[in-house]
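Students often ask why we bother encoding 3D structure as a string. The short answer is that it lets us treat folding as translation between two languages. Here is a chain of 173 residues written in the first language.
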Amino acid sequence: MIIRRSAVVLAFSIWVSAAFAQNGKLNDPEIAHIAYTAGVIDVTAAKQALNRSTNKEVRAFAENMLRDHETVNQLALDLVKKLKVTPEDNDTSRSLSKSAASKLIELGKLKGAEFDKAYVSNEVAYHKTVDDALESMLIPGAGNAELKSLLQTGLKIFQGHEQHAEHLAASLK
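And here it is in the second language, the structure alphabet:
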């Protein structure tokens, strides 16, 4: 599991770094799309967990992920509409989506406690990666103050998700 977690963290860091390297820096529409895509990915994963898991704690965690990520994504959509900005798809958001689709297929082959452990382990790694990217690249790269503020709010929420996932993972061992 540690190897998989490290691979996810490394892959996301490389994608975000590559996007920075291509343009020198990500623009606000690209940052908005990456953040929104990351939220959609976790909403999809939560829905899968709710369809597959019978574990009360895992289901409660997935319900929290679904609620919180849908809420933050709606705030993001409202903000880009207000700012009259169209989020721009980019290599990072496309790579995230592709990787997430593969992970959903992988998790979809698992059942019971095996699924629960793999889902929660993936959530730990995913939140760590996204939190790190928000903190080190996306927030500092955001030019618009409202976008930056939304990303900072999201970071606080998602850091709580990371901690919750870590505690849940420890209880599933």
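Translate back mentally: The chain is about 85% helix and 0% strand. Keep this in mind for the problem set.
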